[in-house]
Fold this sequence. Notes:
It contains eight helices and seven strands. The chain has 204 residues and is an alpha/beta fold. It has a single domain, classed as 3-Layer(aba) Sandwich (Rossmann fold), CATH 3.40.50.10990. Helix 4 packs across helix 5 (114-120). The radius of gyration is 17 Å and the shape is globular. The termini are far apart.
Amino acid sequence: MRARVPVVLHRARGRTAELVTFRGLPDDGEHLACLVPARDPRRTPLARLHSECLTGDVLGSAHCDCGPQLDESLALLARHGGVLLYLRQEGRGIGLYNKLDAYLLQRRDPGTDTFEANRLLGRGADERDYLTAAVMLRTLGLHRVRLLTNNPDKVGQLRAHGIDVTETLPTGVHRTPENTAYLEAKARDGHHLPAHRPDTEVPA
């Protein structure tokens, strides 16, 4: 079952989108899809898998690049249409409170990066699973997508779960003095691809 709620997204330049909720997903998270009508329905749709980040998305924390990536994704969807999956996988799947504990560990020891902090808490460096995302895409009738990401794990997991990722589009650079070490850890330990697109354009 899915329910549609039309909304106007001011962060997506005022475009009207549909918020889609789901029941019967593989996990118990209250995940959400944000659908923006495609400008050219003949194109393979653009998709962004965005893991929830309360501190970055809502509070504007400079510790990470999550908020700017969300804004960038919505700007791209406003331009081209597509879908953003907002996945309730805070802190790479360890949850909000554990993520805040990981922040404290990093503050006490600046040499501890975001992945090592998760491990020191007895959790996986990255516990996110994208089976639910694949089920959401298939439920929406999206079996082929162009994926906006620098994270090869998202690409690999979606393909393993039957989604044809025809193209990977990197996000732009959202570097601040506060998140430089975080971005370097994502590239080094998370094998994220270098972010290099400086604007909100995607190939035609």
